[in-house]
Predict the structure.
Amino acid sequence: MNRVGLAKIEKAVRAVLAQPELNGVYRLSHPGIDFMPVLDGRIMVDKQTFLIAVGQALEFPDYYGNNWDALEECLSDMNWHTGPIALLIKHAEMIPASVLSLFLEIFDPIAAQWALDGRACSLFLCGLENADIPSLA
């Protein structure tokens, strides 16, 4: 992808993160973003590696229990984190479908709740070209 294309993607992502009412989950055509935590779906081969990676990327507190309930609790709190809550997962197609599906079920309502509080919270996924997820670029 050329610089113009990457600049367009970055501009679209920054626009989402500047407007909490746009919180949600988005597909990206290229993972060329460097201003948020980036995870690689190729290493998240099961539920446990996925939960550990997300917890580390978002700097969850020590009490994070690497389970779905703890993930939901930490995403809903995030008092230790300033600014937008954002995460980019490249090669998202490599994450087991059941793991990614459950994560999206947890993430989406939390992002909506953060929107009500006026705080940006969005997830960006690369590698899911045919998914039923809105595309930014």
User: Anything to note?
Assistant: The chain has one domain: 3-126. The mean pLDDT is 92. The two ends are 12 Å apart (CA to CA).
